[in-house]
Specification:
Elements: H1 5-14, H2 19-42, H3 48-57, H4 62-68, H5 72-82, H6 89-93, H7 109-118, E1 120-121, E2 124-125, H8 128-139, H9 144-165, H10 175-181, H11 189-192
Antiparallel strand pairs: 1-2
């Protein structure tokens, strides 16, 4: 089942999602929404509802992982299965690293969420390069092996970006402005958004 926005927000509350993670997820959903609308105007249709739900819930396991340890991706998949959200599981499973990617294949919903997540640092839209720099500093400053894996993952993300934007009538730097103009809003989002800095 693909949950409504209201159900996604209720699930966030049920699992006590931290406000900063909720703010990040809301912004990822807005980026994904802008991309989805653009793609659906130009190419074969992809599911707006699935992408929105996947974006809102991609980090559903992160609060539990931060508080109790564990892999937030696996925890998120377990939560989605427990809630009967089987369609969301593949998006949650691959929002950090895509297990499969075909440059010339059909655009998949998981690719839109994966890319959108890489364009949001906390609750701010940033370039892939800025997000990469943040991830490297935060997670790989003392781990050369992890640094290589992260860089390789972002190289895949650049390929996803090229795949998506061949069908869009705007360019990656325009996303931030388009997100500001979007009419998509979520109940209670102002309460969870981080202070602007």
């Amino acid at each position: 089942m693909i949950p409504s926005i209201q159900r996604c927000l209720a699930i966030m509350d049920k699992y006590h999602m931290l406000d900063n993670i909720k703010a990040h997820s809301v912004m990822v959903a807005k980026v994904a929404h802008v991309i989805t609308v653009g793609l659906n105007q130009k190419t074969e249709k992809i599911s707006k509802d699935l992408i929105l739900a996947g974006a809102l819930l991609h980090d559903i396991g992160k609060t539990q992982a931060l508080k109790h340890g564990g892999d937030h991706v696996k925890i998120g998949q377990e939560i989605c299965l427990k809630e009967g959200l089987d369609e969301i599981v593949p998006i949650v499973a691959e929002h950090v690293v895509l297990k499969s990617f075909a440059r010339d294949g059909k655009i998949e919903e998981k690719e839109v969420v994966y890319y959108s997540d890489k364009r949001v640092n906390h609750d701010r839209v940033v370039t892939l390069q800025k997000r990469l720099e943040y991830i490297l500093e935060r997670y790989a400053s003392r781990n050369p092996g992890l640094k290589v894996a992260i860089i390789n993952n972002f190289n895949v993300c650049k390929k996803v970006e090229a795949k998506l934007f061949q069908y869009l009538n705007f360019q990656p730097p325009e996303i931030e402005g388009l997100v500001r103009k979007t009419e998509l809003s979520f109940p209670g989002e102002q309460e969870c958004l981080l202070p602007t800095h």
